[in-house]
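USER: I would love a firmer grasp of how sequence relates to backbone shape in proteins. This is the protein in question:
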Amino acid sequence: MKILVPVKRVVDYNVKIRVKSDGSGVDLANVKMAMNPFDEIAVEEALKIKERGDAEEVIAISIGPAKAQDTLRTALAMGADRAILIKTEETTEPLAVAKLLKKAVEDESPDLVIMGKQAIDDDCNQTGQMLASLLGWAQGTFASKVEFGDGKVNVTREIDGGLETVALKMPAVITTDLRLNEPRYASLPNIMKAKKKPIDEKTPEDLGVDVTPHIKTLSVEEPPKREAGEIVESVAELVDKLKNEAGVL
């Protein structure tokens, strides 16, 4: 079995986002970038499947600028076998990403695509579902557990009411949730080895996909600062304020 794992380069989750002074977007100058945390979980799950003997190859793929190679090298250092970069300077929307991944799936013929349920920069939570639809494959989203048996993959999903387990016929697309696993740290020797590994580069034009954005960002602004709270002396005073000032009761 071959597994394809899409990974995205995003602002590190520890970094406090700054909005550009003109409100045109997020300021990325001198900002630490990293692999999307949900994609780290996807890479880890693919590696665990390989280590159990259920897969022979794990391929990492990313879509973005040349600097996205760093994200792919992180995946290689974790244990991925190969890496592919679809290089573009355009801001890619979920549907364009899904179309590019569909072409990659057709070229590589994986049995399974495992990806993060969403990216922490736009929080769209759309690409996995769109990819499964374009491919006509089964999908298991928000996975908190993945098991194989009888030619199927059983995915336990986190839903509003609790947990739901679905049996998917292969090939399939799985999107990962936070509780699926704890991603490993790449060792220093593996990081050094990953720097020397070749990365296969393609462009959207090579794949015949138009990635021109269809959504225009009018403005970006920071959320209003949270106002300071107020300390009350008694429960009666709290109830009074909730009733007469806040209008909650």
About this structure: Helices lie at 37-51, 69-78, 94-108, 127-135, 188-196, 204-207, 235-244. The domain at 2-244 is CATH 3.40.50.620 (Rossmann fold).
